[in-house]
Amino acid sequence: MVRTTNPRKFIHFFNKFKAERNLNDRYNIPVEVKVVEVGPRDGLQNEPVNVPTNTKIEFINRLSETGLKAIEVTSFVSPKWIPQMADNAKVFQGIQKKSNIDYPVLIPNVKGLETALSVGVKEIAVFASASEAFSRKNTNCSAEEGINRIREIIDSAKTHNLKVRGYVSCVVGCPYDGFIKPLAVTKIVTALLELGCYEVSLGDTIGVGTKKTIYNMIKDIVNVTEAKNLAIHCHDTFGQALNNVCTALDLGITVVDSSVSGLGGCPYAKGATGNVATEDVIYMLHGLGSNTGIDLKKLIGVGHFISNAINRPTASKVNAALYSKYFL
Ligand SMILES: CC(C)(COP(=O)([O-])OP(=O)([O-])OC[C@H]1O[C@@H](n2cnc3c(N)ncnc32)[C@H](O)[C@@H]1OP(=O)([O-])[O-])[C@@H](O)C(=O)NCCC(=O)NCCSC(=O)C[C@@](C)(O)CC(=O)[O-]
């Protein structure tokens, strides 16, 4: 005998299940997800080849045509530490800015903030680390000194009405200190929010997170702040990034950082690969029924452009699979 499912009964039980678990119609995935493109900064800061300033400008202008609402343009860090970002002011001044897009830049100290202000930056991102050793390698100061520097930056940024976003690096693992306890991350997130960051992005800098460690870390943080104050920033070194992004979305986070073509890595996290590819994130989100406002085809075109420019095959599986269908 063939058993058939009564669709009405099924829908009744499904709705009851959703109500019990507070799920929405999209498999517990938020209906609207904001994607922050970090390729021009996080992506290009680690490039061994010198990317010409004009190429960076064209890259960002093309990204501005895809429907993205936030593009991290560059960083105003020391050129002695990160020579790849030495053309920060020229890049920021050279891009065509759209009024409906935020163009944040990364700032390590007040000196960087002053240069950023001189070229008309409206939003900045500050960065701290949940790990002591990474803080020292990345910013030449302890984690506590890092927070003090951020306080100075934010105090000054407030007087100029700048929006400030925060990052915490090494949220589940550090290349020097190993496993990071959730509590260490929660403390830094709390400090950044108290200082005035409107949102804190949780960086799995070396891409070691798994569903379990990402879940435990976010669960600890959402005990003290709402998920709407958080973003997720996953590198894909161990191929876990999409799954980890999904875990964050499940826990109510609705902002995802990613890098077109999977560009990137941090120079002070050797061996770590790029961010999760924006094309892969968008394909996944659209497949789940989430709205991003981003045109995947255009994004694939931009991913191809930058991969060609740096002479490297794309790290985006979606780009590799769909480029020829769309463009050849
Ligand atoms: C924080 C510092 C500056 C301390 O670096 P320091 O060497 O301790 O600083 P200093 O004050 O002694 O200055 C040294 C020299 O740099 C100059 N300098 C100093 N600051 C600036 C500035 N803003 N702009 C331009 N020049 C600057 C300064 O003027 C001086 O020049 P000199 O007198 O020798 O000619 C340095 O360690 C630095 O720039 N670190 C940034 C490293 C970095 O960019 N890492 C990657 C970004 S973080 C990341 O990728 C993680 C993230 C956010 O994506 C999330 C995740 O995945 O986890």
Automatic annotation (TrEMBL):
It catalyses: (3S)-3-hydroxy-3-methylglutaryl-CoA = acetoacetate + acetyl-CoA. Pathway: Metabolic intermediate metabolism; (S)-3-hydroxy-3-methylglutaryl-CoA degradation; acetoacetate from (S)-3-hydroxy-3-methylglutaryl-CoA: step 1/1. Residues 33-300 form the Pyruvate carboxyltransferase domain. It comes from Cryptolaemus montrouzieri. CDD domains: DRE_TIM_HMGL. The keyword Lyase applies. Belongs to the HMG-CoA lyase family. GO terms for molecular function: hydroxymethylglutaryl-CoA lyase activity; metal ion binding. It comes from the Eukaryota. This is hydroxymethylglutaryl-CoA lyase.
